[in-house]
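ERR on first pass: missing label on line 2. Operator R.T. fixed the label and resubmitted. Corrected input:
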Amino acid sequence: MDGMSEYSGGCQCGAVRFHIRGELKEISLCHCRMCQKAFGAYYAPMVTVKDVEFEWTRGAPAHFRSSNLIRRGFCANCGTPLTYEAEQGMALAAGTFDHPELLPPTMQYGTPSKLPFVDGLHLLPEYRGEPDSSEQDFLSRVESFQHPDHDTGDWHPHVGG
Ligand SMILES: [Zn+2]
Ligand SMILES: [Zn+2]
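pass 2 clean. output:
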């Protein structure tokens, strides 16, 4: 097929990775209280996996059944939310894609539960100051254990706290 899109992504630690071939067309936000809780966030950004080739290329999610009809996948090592799974199909947490900038949301659900300040988030003041010397010292000592935003051949997820 001409111009087939490919996408990759995974959890923060890199123990679970996925790959997709095909066009992803349904990108949404869900404001429902269950999605707020499952993502630990004000709302959940999700990409519907439909009419594409999907594969877990490293590891697989663990699951929590959040209701009789829905289960949610997450990385058992690092806790990153990964999936929303229902009878009709699966959606992936949009922020777990290596390039979420390619997947702008086009629809929102659960708006009766939308938190009242969400519509004003873009108006928040932006901190633009330089880090002070103690912050610079802290930042200079940071060594990231986060998986990079591309597939890796040999990768050893950081385990434990
Ligand atoms: Zn992980
Ligand atoms: Zn929801």
